[in-house]
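Late entry, flavin-adenine dinucleotide complex.
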Amino acid sequence: MVFCTKDIDKLGYKGIKTCEILFENYEVPKGALIGAKEGVGFKQVLGGLELGRVNVAARGVGLARASFEDSIKYTQERKTFGKPIGEHQAIQLKLAEMGTRLEAARLLTQNAAQKLQNGERSDLEAGMAKLYATEAGFKNAEEAMRIHGGYGYTKEFAVERYYRDAPLMLIGEGTNELQKIIISKSLTEKYKI
Ligand SMILES: Cc1cc2nc3c(=O)[nH]c(=O)nc-3n(C[C@H](O)[C@H](O)[C@H](O)COP(=O)(O)OP(=O)(O)OC[C@H]3O[C@@H](n4cnc5c(N)ncnc54)[C@H](O)[C@@H]3O)c2cc1C
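Prediction complete; structure with ligand written out below:
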């Protein structure tokens, strides 16, 4: 039997339900084997990680882009001290950093995706893209919330949701702490003297 024993509430990603699953005396029929061959499951899972990391990197880029685009629009609409907030230098610095972060994340992700599509080894590139793009999404979501001021903390604007959804990407598909370890090992192998 398979049981869903409890629903688990989360900070973000409310569109997907998360629950604890219990398998009790559950036999999986042979025909339900995932992958063509028995005994190589771990290898297959590891092989899927490259694709998974590019996928999460692309989600990081999407989050960085949405945060940037909502912010650059808002900075032209919201006025304080007689002018749009985008004319205050403190906000301009944020927009410059957000836009640059977005562009760098996008290029790293495109590079990793291209290598993967060409059938080339792309573990290093996929790891770098995942690390950078998800941190970019997280940082841009935070800056978007700050730029929106009090509204950024309310559900009146989507930036509140971006801020809650962003942290999962730092954890999923290999935490960013582990990602750094993998990147460092790959770099040492690549630049071995
Ligand atoms: C709703 C939800 C959906 C998820 N979906 C997916 C998914 O689709 N795909 C996916 O891959 N993951 C997904 N995850 C993440 C996954 O389930 C794990 O949470 C994640 O792999 C981290 O493992 P852990 O929670 O056991 O943390 P732990 O391994 O206990 O880590 C705790 C902390 O210790 C650090 N740490 C652990 N080991 C080391 C080490 N050797 N060196 C340095 N630091 C270390 C970690 O970086 C982290 O900061 C999801 C998580 C949630 C909450």
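The chain has one domain: 48-190. Will revisit in the morning.
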